[in-house]
Amino acid sequence: MGDLVETEQLIKKTARDIFFQKGRLKATTQEIADEAGVNRALIHYYFRSREQLLQVVFEEAVAETRQKIAAIFESDLPFKKKISQYLDVFIDRNFRYPYMQNFIITEINQNPDKEDDYLNKKRENLCRTIFPQLNEEIKKGNMAPVKPEHFIANLMSMCSYPLVAKPILQRMFALDDDGYKTFLQERKQVIYKTLFNEAPPKE
Amino acid sequence: MGDLVETEQLIKKTARDIFFQKGRLKATTQEIADEAGVNRALIHYYFRSREQLLQVVFEEAVAETRQKIAAIFESDLPFKKKISQYLDVFIDRNFRYPYMQNFIITEINQNPDKEDDYLNKKRENLCRTIFPQLNEEIKKGNMAPVKPEHFIANLMSMCSYPLVAKPILQRMFALDDDGYKTFLQERKQVIYKTLFNEAPPKE
DNA sequence: GTCTATAAAGGGATAGAC
DNA sequence: GTCTATCCCTTTATAGAC
User: Fold this and answer.
1) CB 3.0-4.6 Å disulfide test: which of A50, A62, B33, B67 passes with B40?
2) CA distance linking residue B203 with residue B195, whole number of Å
């Protein structure tokens, strides 16, 4: 509208909210335009296609988190402390964008080829950083032996699944929305304890 | 075609393969008809809508597994043995229907209201069966204390996430399809060990 | 930059002939 | 029971006026 140069930003912000906060993963360009209070054609004017809008919005939302996580694992904190901080970042991010994980899973399932576009090779690099640290920790006798792949799979599973399967677990445990929030917050401690079989460090 | 009364079954079988084995979760009625070698209109003749075809196929595929799992937890085996058997059933099922979990997650995300239709209250009952057994096991000192909800969440997470996030993990760990199969099979032992902090029982 | 109008494609569902 | 033809709705994308 009258906001001059801000229309592009407005569309991005609106899309981000719709997809990652409200979880309306099938939202149409019309829906986005309506909620932003702009004309549908403007979305194509600025972003060419729905596809590319998603791409941009996703990249931007993911960039900061990725930065933080890389910093954690490249620091010289003790390994377990790193995991503890990773859990903080993860839990934190998912209160701002509760449907990010759903978005990722849904997208890669509907078109596995697109994994490239959304999650480019950064993850591999992260593995190269973490695996040696993990093996070192095992060698020092600080944790039970486990293949790095399985440790990472366990970590990511226990973080992400309760988000993508929220409707299932929420009903199974008969929790209302607030109850489920509490449940998710408790998970930081639980995951740490499950991975290392000991209570997490006090802050 | 000439197969007389078998057309309905043929359509169901084809749909089941497309969705749960091949993972083509967005398959259209046309696609299903083509692959079954029948006319598209027949799908509507037998099942009224794409929606209802899915419903039927899913229910049938899920029924047997649900039966088995209920039987396990209603038996009088030791609790840990039950979990061990649950893991067997789960892993086994997911080699027959590798995309079942993806289907569930994708469906409930695109329409959370439909959880009712697909996964009716049976799960709640299962919780009522398992929770007391779990608390008993903790009381007996056979495992570390944990809220039942988190134990179940951990179990389901570590089973399901590696399936729904296959493209992510596969690339992250640089595994080919066979490598990933092996990885999934290893998980039975890993999950048991992670949950109980001890090696699973020999068969 | 922003709007209206319209093209173009995809896919679910039904009517009616055979 | 099976097929063809058709309807109808949704949604993306663009052309062109303002």
Assistant:
1) B33
2) 18
